[in-house]
Amino acid sequence: MSNKLVKSALDQAGSGTRSVWSGEQVKHPYRATQTPIVASAAYGYQDIDEWYDVALGAAPGFIYSRMSNPTVEILEAKICGLENAESAVAFSTGMAAISSVLYTFLSHGCRVVSTKDSYGGTNKVFEEFLPRMGVSVTLCETHSHEQIEAEIAKGCDVLYLETPTNPTLKIVDVKRLVAAAKKVGALVMADNTFATPLNQSPLALGVDIVIHSATKFLSGHADAMGGLVCGSEDLMAKVRHYREINGASLDPFSAYLIIRGMKTLALRIRQQQSSAQAIAQYLLTEPLVEAVNYPGLPSHPNHAIACEQMRGFGAMVSFVLAGGMDTVKILLPQLQYAHCAGNLGAVETIYGPARTTSHVENTLEERLALGISEGLVRISVGIEDTDDLIADLQQAFKRVRTLSRENTDSLSCCTK
Ligand SMILES: *Cc1c(COP(=O)(O)O)cnc(C)c1O
Q1: Annotated catalytic residue within 18, 216, 268, 378
Q2: How many angstroms separate the alpha carbon of residue 356 from the centre of ligand 1?
Q3: Edge-to-edge strand list for the sheet holding 136-140
Q4: Is Amino-acid biosynthesis included in the keywords of this UniProt record (predicted)?
Q5: The predicted structure's pLDDT at residue 415
Q6: Ligand 1 atom 11: the closest Cα is on which residue?
Q7: Which neighbouring-strand residues pair with 42?
Q8: What's the 48 CA to ligand 1 centre distance in angstroms?
Q9: Domains of the chain (ranges, CATH numbers)
Q10: Quick check: 228 and 215 in contact, CB under 8 A?
Q11: Residue 193 beta carbon below 6 angstroms from any ligand 1 atom
Q12: 81, 133, 270, 287: which has the highest count of C-beta atoms within 10 A?
């Protein structure tokens, strides 16, 4: 089977087939069927002319693993297949990918337009590091497409989007904002971590650069960190050059784990988002829950846009608990099938309040200004059976009600 044949066949293939086969049509040493971990810092050459050609990029090959590595290249090919991208560049973490892409294209005097809701680390790059190097950043109300368009129209170099957002699951209309950005010649970047390539194809919606924290759903097992950036060959050549010099390259062990995880991406996401929909609907019926955020609910303010630009609504749900942090502290320890942890996108269900997860870097005042209340809990729905996850929540809520009744009873008997 030639690489070309596999490539064109894969263009027609479904996401499950792509998850398995994209990037994997390479012949490995020893006829291994699995991607080898090439743990070599450098690559040796007897022939100085050949070495020089490879170093200049005139011949294929590898020189030094900060610049490129065979295992990492297979991961880059795999995400290209899933995002339908010409080229991709892998980084050591999602934040390395995000900051490196921003620093590749921004310099003193540039202007970025983005939204108030974005991953906490990204928000810090916008508020703390970019202004320090003379880049002005305007963060708009995420729900106000009019305000975002007005800010873009004033002129900007980069429009940075994240949809759905972390942790409030807001949706922005990608096509609409891309149209506004193209009018002023801005480069559009989108963080596709929450949607995954299975549910949303930002490049097809007109975005120039797609970014993933591969630590999350792509890897899927919470045992490796990485970041991936995709786009045209021209743009990625610039990003690759930045990585080569600034050095946040991905190590081959993590690349291997992410490749292995990505083979089950479609299978996992289908199960996880079908449970997420059921859990979101259940939470709507729970008296202790004040609000539920999930783009798959018809009550979500941008459900129609989500239906338009997404093929599925993802595995992230968040909800606001009555009683704020006090109730959060009682509810979370009652759950059996749950890690309480600061990550997401794994096979296990993970719960966490924004205070210790997405917005751990922010102060209480900053979180409240972003509309993130202390009772907000984020769920990354895992691959467990849907009924078990709902039963687990039901017993936990029941326990919270009993405990708070006991508390009130003991309080009232003390005051008697
Ligand atoms: C986790 C996350 C990041 C950062 O990725 P790391 O791999 O933790 O550096 C960026 N964006 C989103 C939406 C995330 O969830």
Answers
A1: 216
A2: 14
A3: 87-91, 227-231, 209-213, 187-191, 158-162, 111-115, 136-140
A4: no
A5: 43
A6: 119
A7: 64
A8: 42
A9: 3-262 (3.40.640.10), 265-411 (3.90.1150.10)
A10: no
A11: yes
A12: 81
Q: What is the pLDDT of residues 142-197, one digit of tens each?
A: 999 999 999 999 999 999 999 999 889 999 999 999 999 999 999 999 999 999 99
pLDDT tens digits along 194-226: 999 999 999 999 999 999 999 999 999 999 999
CB neighbours of residue 230 within 10 Å: 28
Which is the closest atom of ligand 1 to the Cα of 193? 13
| 140 CB burial (10 A radius; 0-12, 13-18, 19+) | buried
How far, in Å, CA of 1 to CA of 57, rounded? 27
Query: Which DSSP state fits 88?
Result: E
With a 6 Å cutoff on the Cβ, whether 166 touches ligand 1 is yes
Could you confirm whether 119 is annotated as catalytic? yes
Computed over its alpha carbons, how large is the radius of gyration of the chain?
A: 23
Q: Is residue 255 within 8 Å of 219, Cβ to Cβ?
A: no
* 337-340 own/partner pairs: CB under 8 Å, 24+ apart: 337/382, 337/384, 337/388, 337/389, 337/392, 338/392
Asked if 286 and 397 count as a contact pair (C-beta separation under 8 A), the reply is yes
d(CA 95, ligand 1 centre) in Å: 6
Residue of 161, 175, 173 lying closest to 205 (CA atoms): 175
The answer to whether residue 191 is catalytic is yes
* Stretch among 8-22, 164-178, 313-327, 361-375 having the lowest mean pLDDT: 361-375
State the DSSP H helix or E strand holding residue 140, giving kind and residue range, or none if neither.
Answer: strand 136-140
Prediction pTM value: 0.94
Indicate if ligand 1 lies below 6 Å from the C-beta of 117. no
| Ligand 1 centroid from CA 346, angstroms | 13
Residue 341: how many CA atoms within 13 Å on its side-chain side?
A: 14
- Give every strand in the sheet of 316-321, ordered side by side: 289-293, 316-321, 376-380, 350-353, 339-340
